[in-house]
């Protein structure tokens, strides 16, 4: 069976809420019903069928052939199956996802993977600010699953993360892992100011020493530990990185001592 | 009893009788194989027999750095016990006293079993609040700060109920040196078989036992039928020219692993021949009434 494919006919005239188009909700639905689903955010009442040409039958794997910065909430709330977007997406892609895989062959807007609890999100381009962050009033960000951004991420990536893995491969903005509760964030490339600010626990694993660090972080030395080797092998096996990140005896900086102080920033030792 | 002859070595047409056991395995790694082995040897010390040691344990195999989870050299250690609770207790105490304490060590699950046994889940409290939990790749690890860095330990390992303990062979020789040569040859061959351990010293038992004895409360006593110095005094199982007997005891993850190990041991001893090694090979059983698993030498011969 061919994947259920939504071919974008033209750039949408308004922002779209595509949270209805996830495998869990489309399983067993006839194409006519899918075409009638409302996806607009204004009074025009725009429907799926007005914007996309629908082909294929397999609702467990969806393809958006053509993307747009106006595609909001792509894959939001999905718990199984896969969604592939050939193009960019707007904000909150993969919001509150619990399982399955979301692959974006382009860039994503703000709050990508906000509140992720399981599954995997992969973005080949860049991601906006507040990657995986909680929405206003929520107490935690990512609580499970994996987000891989192969380009850059904006400010406050991994805010209030509780569990899981976020990897950003071409650097990120300020306040990486802001208020992190636990979990693991990997960043290769330049990291902005104050990474790990107010982090309680958790790990920021980098490929270099951050330029600007909060003074509430303290030196933890260069102990020879087995964890770095284990995690390096995991990153390579998962095809997140193609070479080891930390090596043996990475430099460890502990913080944020302004709060609980059991978090860590680790990066490869420079000899 | 009928006897078979291979390469001049006489093989009794008998069987080894073995029992169902619970088993688990862990992988211990360290910066060097020497120190991985040291932790493993220490952990598997005083673990020859469940009767007196609570468990039977040994090193299954060495692992190169490409075969371990953290990319450091290591070895796979197996533990056997009669019940799950005892196995868990032995695993926890030996891990805490012998592996946690060993320089540079880390510990990982070595078996995907039917149920989990605690490793790091139990030891994490040594970290006194500084322990770090890490979950990735569907697995859970604990990092415990220690004086040489961190003790990295997977949260749990697996338990199997398919394990077998007590596979064995008796090697009868003209003198002590030849008996030892035969036993060492068998041990070297069996060490290459995955999924088995030989829990006795160097894999060899010199004090084979029979059930019970003349003294009250003795669960086991010397196997007088195979004791060469008693040849004239008791109903002996030995020929006049036999002056030393050594036994190999094998515990395996599965019954097939025990068969493979016995096959490898028999082949090696037969190849060594009677001039340098064993004149005769036998096996220990209790008439077949006690153990569920019977390994007939006839079927395992090369």
TrEMBL record, chain A:
InterPro entries: Formylmethanofuran_DH_suC, Glu_synth_asu_C_sf
Gene Ontology MF term list: formylmethanofuran dehydrogenase activity
Keywords carried by this UniProt record: Oxidoreductase
EC category name: oxidoreductase
Domain of life: Bacteria
EC number(s) on file: 1.2.7.12
Keyword Oxidoreductase: yes
Protein's name in the database: Formylmethanofuran dehydrogenase subunit C
Source organism of this protein record: Ciceribacter thiooxidans
UniProtKB/TrEMBL annotation, chain B:
Subcellular location, record wording: Cytoplasm
Catalytic activity field: N-formylmethanofuran + 5,6,7,8-tetrahydromethanopterin + H(+) = N(5)-formyl-5,6,7,8-tetrahydromethanopterin + methanofuran
MF terms in GO: formylmethanofuran-tetrahydromethanopterin N-formyltransferase activity
Domain Formylmethanofuran: tetrahydromethanopterin formyltransferase Ftr C-terminal: 149-300
Source superkingdom: Bacteria
EC numbers on record: 2.3.1.101
Pfam families: FTR, FTR_C
Subunit structure: Homotetramer.
Protein name: Formylmethanofuran--tetrahydromethanopterin formyltransferase
Lineage: Bacteria, Pseudomonadati, Pseudomonadota, Alphaproteobacteria, Hyphomicrobiales
């Amino acid at each position: 069976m061919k994947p259920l494919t939504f071919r974008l006919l033209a750039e949408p005239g308004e922002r779209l809420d595509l949270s209805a188009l996830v495998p869990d909700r489309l399983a067993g639905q006839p194409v006519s019903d899918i075409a009638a689903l409302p996806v607009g955010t204004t009074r025009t009442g725009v429907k799926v069928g007005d914007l996309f040409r629908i082909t294929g039958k397999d609702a467990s794997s969806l393809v958006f052939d053509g993307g747009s910065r106006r595609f909001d909430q792509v894959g939001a709330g999905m718990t199984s199956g896969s969604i592939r977007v050939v193009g960019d997406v707007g904000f909150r892609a993969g919001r509150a996802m619990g399982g399955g895989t979301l692959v974006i062959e382009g860039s994503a807007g703000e709050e990508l993977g906000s509140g992720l609890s399981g599954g995997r999100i992969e973005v080949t381009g860049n991601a906006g600010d507040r990657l995986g962050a909680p929405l206003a009033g929520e107490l935690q960000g990512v609580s499970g699953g994996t987000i891989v951004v192969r380009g850059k991420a904006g400010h406050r990536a991994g805010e209030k993360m509780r569990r899981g893995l976020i990897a950003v491969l071409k650097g990120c903005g300020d306040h990486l892992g802001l208020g992190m509760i636990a979990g693991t964030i990997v960043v290769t490339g330049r990291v902005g100011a104050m990474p790990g600010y107010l982090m309680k626990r958790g790990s920021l694993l980098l490929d270099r020493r951050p330029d600007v660090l909060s003074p509430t972080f303290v030196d933890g030395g260069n102990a020879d530990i087995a964890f770095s080797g284990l995690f390096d092998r995991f990153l390579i096996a998962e095809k997140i990185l193609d070479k080891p990140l930390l090596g043996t005896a990475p430099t460890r900086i502990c913080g944020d001592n302004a709060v609980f102080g059991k978090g860590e920033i680790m990066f490869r030792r420079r000899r | 009893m009928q006897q078979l002859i291979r390469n001049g070595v006489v093989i009794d047409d008998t069987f080894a009788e073995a029992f169902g056991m619970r088993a688990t395995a862990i992988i211990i790694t360290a910066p060097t194989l020497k120190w991985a082995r040291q932790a493993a040897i220490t952990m598997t010390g005083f673990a020859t027999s469940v009767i007196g040691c609570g468990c039977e344990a040994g090193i299954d195999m060495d692992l190169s750095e490409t075969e371990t989870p953290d990319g450091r050299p290591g070895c796979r250690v197996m533990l056997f016990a009669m019940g799950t609770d005892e196995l868990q207790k032995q695993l926890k105490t030996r891990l805490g006293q012998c592996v946690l304490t060993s320089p540079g060590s880390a510990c990982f699950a070595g078996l995907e079993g039917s149920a989990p046994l605690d490793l790091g889940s139990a030891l994490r409290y040594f970290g006194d609040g500084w322990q770090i939990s890490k979950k990735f790749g569907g697995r859970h690890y604990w990092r415990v700060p220690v004086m040489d860095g961190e003790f990295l330990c997977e949260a749990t390992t697996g338990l199997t109920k398919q394990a077998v303990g007590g596979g064995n062979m008796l090697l009868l020789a003209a003198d002590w040196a030849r008996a030892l040569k035969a036993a060492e040859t068998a041990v070297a061959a069996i060490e290459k078989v995955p999924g088995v351990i030989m829990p006795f010293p160097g894999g060899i038992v010199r004090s084979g036992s029979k059930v019970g004895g003349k003294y009250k409360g003795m669960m086991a006593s010397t196997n007088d039928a195979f004791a060469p110095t008693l040849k004239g005094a008791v109903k002996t199982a030995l020929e006049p020219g036999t002056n030393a007997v050594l036994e190999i005891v094998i515990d395996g993850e599965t019954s097939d692993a025990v068969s493979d190990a016995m096959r490898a041991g028999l082949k090696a001893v037969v190849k060594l021949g009677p001039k340098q090694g064993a004149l005769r090979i036998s096996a220990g059983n209790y008439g077949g009434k006690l153990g569920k698993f019977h390994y007939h030498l006839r079927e395992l011969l090369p």
